[in-house]
Amino acid sequence: MGPEHGEALAACLALDLGIEQGWRNCLIEGDCLVVIQKLLMVQEDASAVGPIIKDILRLSSFFDTVSYTHVKRSANSAAHCLAKAAFSIQAGGIPPASLFDTLEVEAKFH
Fold first, then answer.
1. Which residues lie across from 30 on neighbouring strands?
2. Which Pfam families match (predicted)?
3. Distance between CA atoms of 81 and 63, rounded to whole angstroms?
4. How many CB atoms lie within 10 A of CB 87?
5. 3-state secondary structure labels for all residues of 39-97
6. For the domain that residue 83 is a member of, what is the CATH number?
């Protein structure tokens, strides 16, 4: 798996978390421009990450609003943390506790 897979899995896990927490609005910030562009295009994607993109778009329907924004890696510690964890989290696994702290800190800036 490459960075695109990690970033896409992180976005998918973030939306899963948002659904579990009952959030109505979600902002997905990512440092992988290719993934953010694919999410903004909202069209069929035949690439290797296409199935994950499709799942992200399906999950986004559970929210009132979902925004996708490209940011520099240094400004996106939550996504970086989750992208790293995505490689070790099995389906149905529990996100790392440190992620919740990072999300709380970043939420204060939005």
1. 70
2. RVT_3 (PF13456)
3. 23
4. 11
5. HHHCCCCCCCCHHHHHHHHHHHCCCCEEEEEECCHHHCHHHHHHHHHHCCCCCCCCCCH
6. 3.30.420.10
**Overall average pLDDT of the 50-71 stretch:** 95
Domains: count for the chain: 1
Please state, rounded to an integer, the average pLDDT across all residues of the chain: 81
Distance CA 98, CA 60 (A): 24
pLDDT of residue 6: 85
Whether 47 shows a pLDDT value over 50: the answer reads yes
State which residues form the domain around 91. 3-107
pTM over 0.85: no
pLDDT surpasses 50 at 28: yes
Q: Encode 31-69: b = buried (16+ Cβ within 10 Å), e = exposed.
A: bbeebbebbeeeeebeeebeebbebbbebbeeeeebebe
Count Cα neighbours of 54 within 13 Å in the Cβ-side half-sphere. 8
